[in-house]
Specification:
It comes from Kinneretia aquatilis. It is built from 14 helices and twelve strands. The chain is α/β, with parallel strands linked by helices. The protein has a single domain, classed as Alkaline Phosphatase, subunit A (3-Layer(aba) Sandwich). A hairpin with a 2-residue loop joins strand 6 (216-219) and strand 7 (222-223).
Amino acid sequence: MTSVHRLPTLQRREFLRRASALGVAGAAAPWALNLAALGEAAAQTAPSDYKALVCVFLYGGNDYGNTVIPYDAPSHTAYQPIRQTLAIPRDQLAATALTPRVALPDARQMALSPQMTGLKTIFDAGKLGVLLNVGTLVQPTTLAQYKAQSVPLPPKLFSHNDQQSVWQASNPEGAISGWGGRLGDQFLSANGNATFTCINVSGNAVFMAGQQAVQYQMSTSGAVAINGVTRPLYGSQACADALRSLITAERSHWMEQELNRVVSRSVNAQAIVASALNTLPALNTVFDTTNSLATQLQMVAKMIAARSSMGAKRQVFFVSIGGFDLHDFLPDQHPGLLRKVSEALGSFYDATVELGVANQVTAFTASDFGRTLSSNGDGSDHGWGSHHFVLGGAVKGGRFWGQAPEVAVNGPDDVGQGRLLPTSSVDQLGATLASWMGVPASDLSRVMPQIANYTQKDLGFFL
């Protein structure tokens, strides 16, 4: 009978390895790490300062053509007939036209969506920049190489699930670790409590899973509690204590033992988070409570404010907003989504200023892929490269990084229908962010496994 309940040896070992990272990190002591985690983090010198990275994922594939929009007259003239009913008239872009500190070549100009006035303000202040045409790649790839299929390409291009995973993990759907989690691996021993290295306020994402680091999932209200343990059960504290003992006690069966260790970790972590958040003074920065992305970022700001009580010196956060798969209704729905993104990021940046950590916190946007520049009538279809934002006090903002694509269909920068062939890779983006966090050049490949394929490993958007 026993063999029926046992996993194959290799699966059992992997289960124990992953569960150990959950269970052993349950205590608040600096030694709440397993030996593998200590070895992974040994390359890092425990930092005396604090830094946090915040990934803002736009699920569905954001439409780059109506987010960062060609504004100079020749480019907008080329843009309008390609976009047809999707095009935003040039006279509606004047308030969000960007004047970068370093001009684009060929007198090119860009504007943000008219709904993104908040990000325009941060751009003008030099704390936000735009990374042009970034996407998943295996190695630098030209259009000729793409057409000839003479270089390796990201698997399953234009597939939502797979490209979300490739963006977040450098591997298609089914990946077990993402580069946010692998970045967290590098700093486990620097944090007083390893549990709070990778924090997800959006549910679950492979981006936050490390080889040893395990994402701690929260809601916008705080730590998720086991109600029967954190409050009297059936009106009885004795019942609550009995339940706690039942679900956290030592067990003889290995699966029961690992489950109880995970539950114990959750109970202990919830108590730490609740105590830390309850003692925080209220933020003066206003977040729109009707905007789900804003409330997620508000919780991130609160966790950053509570960093000292949790012993955190390096943290990675994940938040998200969906609804961007707009094959239809793009003119009606996309502006509202971009307004939410702009307002949420604007409030979050203001909160980091209020907390005095603006120079220590960097946020960036990401998405499954860009979309076609060409219109399908009422929307756009799955694409590849896209434009994204990086913001924070340490960012060399007020400028564009990367190469501005030509506004054309079947032009030199796309693989058809305005699907951009990326000229900057997610690996380069991740390596740049990891370097800022303190990962040495010799360890970048542990975070971004394909970075060795690139001569330029740092995209240069930090001061």
